[in-house]
Specification:
The protein is mostly helical. The chain is built from six helices and no strands.
Length: 169
């Protein structure tokens, strides 16, 4: 399952290059955030870290979505024929890979290896707030606080958070 998610993330990265509309960038980023949070949740013993990461990214994407809809509200959303053909080719490649017998035998072998590795990972897993990681977490929180203060100081409260619309009479 994790291999399928990784293949899908790589496919989304390739399709990101071919897009040209800001709202499709946001959609691809949101899908990639969901897939990466699923992968990190499967790699760990609990999903709490991936859940928090997903919520933070969705909050940022909502702000970007509001800003982009106010700036580029009347742009047409079109997909090129090249993009559609590349999506179809990539999906067919993924489907043929998943349907082959060699892939399933490889997954069975990897599943056996993962069950043995999980027993070893239980002993070596450290908590996020242990001594080495707590300094990084504290620095990240402090960086976000300083960034928040700088953004509040830079924006002019009289004009509002988004661009100001002038109406001619």
């Amino acid at each position: 399952m994790k291999n399928i998610l990784i293949i899908t993330v790589m496919f989304m990265s390739w399709s990101f290059i071919l897009l040209n509309h800001p709202l499709t960038f946001g959609m691809i980023l949101l899908i990639q955030t969901f897939l990466i949070s699923m992968i990190t949740g499967m790699m760990g013993l609990s999903f709490w870290f991936s859940y928090i990461m997903f919520l933070i990214m969705v909050g940022g994407m909502l702000i970007l979505f509001i800003y982009m809809t106010s700036v580029a509200s009347n742009e047409k959303f079109e997909m090129s024929k090249m993009m559609i053909t590349i999506i179809i080719i990539m999906m067919m490649t993924i489907m043929t890979t998943l349907l082959s017998d060699q892939f399933f035998s490889y997954l069975d072998m990897k599943n056996h290896e993962m069950s043995q590795n999980n027993k070893m990972n239980l002993m070596t897993m450290t908590k996020f707030m242990s001594q080495p990681a707590s300094m990084i977490m504290t620095l990240t929180i402090f960086y976000l606080l300083i960034t928040l203060i700088m953004v509040v100081k830079i924006t002019n409260i009289q004009y509002g958070p988004l661009r100001q619309k002038f109406y001619e009479k």
